[in-house]
Amino acid sequence: MNKQRVQELLFYHIQKHSSVYLFVTVLFFIGVVFGAVVVNSLNLGQKEDLFYYLDRFFGQVTKGEVANSADILKQSFWHNIKYLGFIWILGISVIGLPVVLVLLFLKGIVIGFTVGFLVNQMGFHGFLLSFVSVFPQNLFLIPLFIVVSTLSLSFSLKLMKQFVRSGSETMVAAFMRYSTVILLILAVVTISSTLEAYASPFLMKTTLSFLE
To answer: Of 28, 71, 77, 81, whose CB neighbour count within 10 A is largest?
Structure first.
């Protein structure tokens, strides 16, 4: 399959599912905004407790006392594989459709809260730290979450339509196409986990040293 053919198929896919992509993307970023807003609802004591642990973590990063990169890579890889794999599995079940939306929203909340808390407590320095600690791996993970969630929702909707009409061969072909998403998950999670394990700690340590 040549490059032009792949581009045509990709364009057709996005065009066909554009409404779902739009809905999923908006939902995710609503979660990000909600997570950032939640920071303001914390009382002073809660913020101080969180910042205390965060400050200790930054101190460990500066001294190079965090877990080694291999352990971080393994932990990050399996965490993301299980999370995204669960979304993929839910796509096979019609009743899992709302759960996919909840998981995507929660992912947005976590990212929004992390960035929002750092900025709230440390201002521009917090923005720099969130950029080097959150951005590298999520540059790949966020699009992957959006794509996998969209495909999961689309497959669930296709299953719902199948309940009112026959055509098992069509569903088998659709399931085979849906299953290829696993390869996408494995490839992108490997890249993002590698960045989280090797690039983010180095960038955080460099940034913290610069801010001292």
So the answer is: 28
